[in-house]
TrEMBL record:
The lineage of its organism: Bacteria, Pseudomonadati, Planctomycetota, Planctomycetia, Planctomycetales. NCBIfam families: IMP_synth_hisH (TIGR01855). It is found in: Cytoplasm. This is Imidazole glycerol phosphate synthase subunit HisH. Its EC number is 4.3.2.10, 3.5.1.2. Signal peptide: none annotated. Heterodimer of HisH and HisF. It comes from Gimesia benthica.
Amino acid sequence: MITIVDYGMGNLRSVQKAFEKVGAEAQICTNPEEIAKASKLILPGVGAFRDAIQALKDQNLVEPILEHANSGKPFLGICLGLQLLFDVSYEDGEYEGLGIIPGKVVRFQDQPGLKIPHMGWNQIDATRPHPLLAGIPEHEHFYFVHSYYVAPDNDDDVAAWTEYGCRFASMVARDNLVACQFHPEKSQNAGLKLLQNFAAF
Ligand SMILES: NC(=O)CC[C@H](N)C(=O)O
C-alpha cells in the first residue's frame, strides 16, 4: 500500500488518482502512527515552504516522515515535498527544512525574459539510470510549477538536471529516497510511468 501524507497542503487527490490509473492503490493519511507504518510514502506539496514545514510540525508528522526516510523503505517527494527534504529554504525568509538531504532551496534569479514561476513543460536530463525512470525516454518532458529550486550540496544526490535560466536539480535520489521538482501526476504518460515505477520500487 502507498501512503500519501496529508498535511493539508497538497494536490493529494490527483496524486491518488494517478496511482489508481496505473493500477496501484494509494491511501491518503493524516495519522502519524499510520504514516510511521507505511510501506511506501509520498510527501506531496503545493504552496509556501513556511506553511508546509509548520503544518508538519503542528501535526506531529516530522518524526514519522524522518523515520520512514531513514528506514530504507521507498519514499517519494513531489514539488514542495522535494524542497522540504532539504536543510533550509529561502522562500520569503529562512526556514529550516527536514534536513534529510544536505542543501538549500533558493529562488530563480530574475533575468530578462525569464518568467517566474517556472510554469509548464520542460525536459529532464538524467545523471544516471534510475528505477523510477525505467521505460521513460531520455530528455523526457514533465510539468513544473515552482519559483524555487533545490541546490543539493552533493551532486551525487542529483538524479536529473533541468535548464531554466540556470541548470537546476529537477530530481534527487539517494537509496530508498527519490524526489522530483516536477509534478508526475500532471505529466501525462511520462508522469504515470514514473509513478508506476515507484509502485514497483
Ligand atoms: N507549486 C508549488 O507549491 C511550488 C513550491 C514552492 N512554493 C516554490 O515556489 O517553488
